[in-house]
Amino acid sequence: MTSFEEAETEETVTCLHMTFYHPCQEKKMMFRCLNFGKREQVRADEMAKFGRDSNICHYNLMDTRVSRIQFALQFYRKLNSSEYLFEIKNLSKRTKLTVNQTELGYLNKIDLPWKCIICFGDYQILAEVQEGESMDYFETHLHLAEAPVLQERSLPSLQPIVENGISSSIFLSEGKSPTEIDENE
């Protein structure tokens, strides 16, 4: 047998790709402590914390408007499944966090969709999960966006789009969703 045949099977690693954007990033350099373009390993039993406190957070945002701990990501395996997911938890008492169009208050948490946009303040983060098999760790791969990720990726805007001059928020405020009606009715 050759050494190739005797080698252990290579296991794939779940990777969380995160693309960061802030309108003042060139002036304020709030991302200067993030390692862009380089994959970093995070143990599966640790939370990936984002915020401005470098003693607590591994991913530091250098901005006084960011909470000491803004949010955390927890890697976990679904019960009775081989599927690995991330859970995002808002740890800021001052700032709400939105994941796509779901708003999270302090200590609220949800499963992170496979592709989503995380927003708080003027920050926009496009998160994309690349599936893997490893149970021991996952990787993060950070990227810097030149343009807003909401526009750059052609993902749905968080603002309602008015098509006929009537805002859909009128219907939503009454607890009813807009319904489609055939022209012939």
From TrEMBL:
It is found in: Cytoplasm. Keywords: Cytoplasm, Immunity, Innate immunity. The keyword Heme does not apply. One of its GO terms (biological process) is innate immune response. The keyword Cytoplasm applies. InterPro entries: FHA_dom, SMAD_FHA_dom_sf, TIFA. One of its GO terms (cellular component) is cytoplasm. SUPFAM superfamilies: SMAD/FHA domain (SSF49879). Residues 49-121 form the FHA domain. It comes from the Eukaryota. Belongs to the TIFA family. This is TRAF-interacting protein with FHA domain-containing protein A.
